[in-house]
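Bug #77: duplicate submission created two jobs. Keeping one. Sequence:
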Amino acid sequence: MKTYQIVGIGNAVVDVISQSDDSFLAHMGIEKGIMQLIERERGEVLYGAMEGRVQTPGGSVANTIAGAGSLGLDAAFIGRVHDDALGHFYANAMNEEGVDFVNPPVTGGELPTSRSMIFVSPDGERSMNTYLGISSELSSADVPDAVAGNAQIMFLEGYLFDKDKGKSAFLEAARDCRKSGGKSGIAISDPFCVERHRADFLQLIEHDLDFVIGNQDEIKSLFETDDLETALAKTSAICPLVICTRSGDGVTVINGETRLDVPVKTVVPVDATGAGDQFAAGFLFGMATERDLETCAKIGNLCAAEVISHIGPRPETNMIALLREAGLL
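Kept job's structure:
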């Protein structure tokens, strides 16, 4: 049975990117610069209206797992795609990036593969229109015991909490992983996600997880406070390892009684998409290869800096060479 260093569970979303000007956005009724969830019919209209489409596999935790794979970890991703053109594109693209996509595309009268139509304006603003499709239907049946039970690190995506069956799949995966000696953790994903499921999130973090990764807004939203220090203290009281990214202010890592504040070099982003996802990839790579927590945070910072230096949410540089250059490998 294959042992994976890292396994992720999350939404398998194809990002479909197209350049468009403000008059096109206005004509199509697209709100500029934000992410909106849309229905299937609207998704088909927008998809059909896109010119010069570029497709890339996306999804927050999927981006993290792809980043970890590019650093050389044995990685797998659990997600749900349909047996359609976009579904095969997604599965093949993950496999080509060195990540085992362990779920075969679903056949039958199911929903189509999830996609996010992203319109990039001349000023670099991204207007995202996401149709969740089949990926949000993930359930325990999609989580192979053999994969979850043989993971050193299991990384879960907060967005899947929006459905009860996603929640159950999470719990089972986390418990299978921990039962066999692995560590399970969560990407909080979004403050609004926390607001919808605060009690369940806190229950999961306290009883079933070994680590939590989030930005300052997400961590504050866990305990409904505007004071980051209060939120960090409360989160670290229920979770052994808390990793909080604070944008230009660096990263705070709290492990029991030990606190580290690791600074970052400020970089002007070309495209900030994926910064948190790739920070997580670097940090978890450090954990999987048994580096100390300060080194984990430095690797995470370097991965985040690389991804914001170009368009798109996944690394485009040889990350291993980059880490060697920085003296982190």
